[in-house]
Amino acid sequence: MLFPVLQLIGGVILSLGWVPQIIQILKTKSVSDLSLKAYLLIFLGISLMEVYAISLAVNGAGLAFLITNTLSLCVVLFVITLI
């Protein structure tokens, strides 16, 4: 029980780590210093992990991983949309 809780907390922290970047983009209305290629690669990596997370969840394990990974995927997609 401890490890899924730690994973959930860690995943939420990692997902929320993107929020300052989003706030900065919205505040300055500028994405000129951001690399779209870098964010697309991050999105691809998280997408591949999402497939793995779905596989774990279907087999009855890894629900916390699926939740936090999906959150990260959505946040990074939002940054890409802003770029």
Give me a quick take on this structure.
With 83 residues, the chain is mostly helical.
Describe the structure.
Pfam families: PQ-loop. It is a multi-pass membrane protein. It is found in: Membrane. By secondary structure, the chain is mainly alpha-helical. The chain contains four helices and no strands. The relative contact order is 0.21.
Distance N terminus to C terminus? 39 Å
Percentage of residues in strands: under 5%
The structure class reads mainly alpha
In the predicted model, the low-confidence regions spanning at least 5 consecutive residues are: none
Pattern of helices and strands:
HHHH
Taken from the alpha-carbon principal axes, the silhouette is: elongated
Q: Characterize the main sheet.
A: none
Query: Gyration radius, to the nearest Å?
Result: 14 Å
Organism: Paenibacillus violae
Transmembrane segments: 6-26, 38-57, 63-82
InterPro entries: PQ-loop_rpt (IPR006603)
Subcellular location: Membrane
